[in-house]
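Table 4 source record.
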Amino acid sequence: MSYGVRILLYLSFLLPLSIWSQENNWELKKMRNGIQVYTRTIPNSTNKEYKAVVTVKSSMEKAVTTLLDGNNLYEWNHQTPESKTIRKINEHTVVIWMKNQTPWPIPNRDHIARLEAEYLNNYTVKISITPEKQFLIPTSKNVIRMEDFKGFWLVVDHGNQLIITQQLYGDAGGNLPDWLVNSALTTAPYNTLLNLKNKLETTP
């Protein structure tokens, strides 16, 4: 496939995504170091959804492998002191566990997610993020398990670079102060994508 054809296909993908984003009331909350973070209100919910986008110089294979690696996710996911792969279902599907650190004295959170990679075409991979219902592990003391969340990673090969998007909605459970929730909606995805970019661009 020629580079020109790839550009046209990529633009045809972005156009409906851009229109869809506008129609669904995404609001830009942060734009720094080439990373954009958007949020939007979810009907019948007090929680908001976020979408974060970053451009990375890396390969599709390396990006997908990194995103599916629960054992090393803690290296780049924001405020994640621990993580691991619980079960590898197949080459494209894994079950991971991760702990999210919160400011004291608020209890930490954890969750178990199934990540499933779907190759939409030769240059686009979508990794769904859904709660795992089958392969579970006990919750640690003083840790609240998050069970209501849904989202995805989207990795698009744009010639010599990737455009990586994370879109996620989640209910952290329990009572959290508004300042923490609002801060996390922009700070967490921004730092996560910044760390991911650094990892993909600097490690072999």
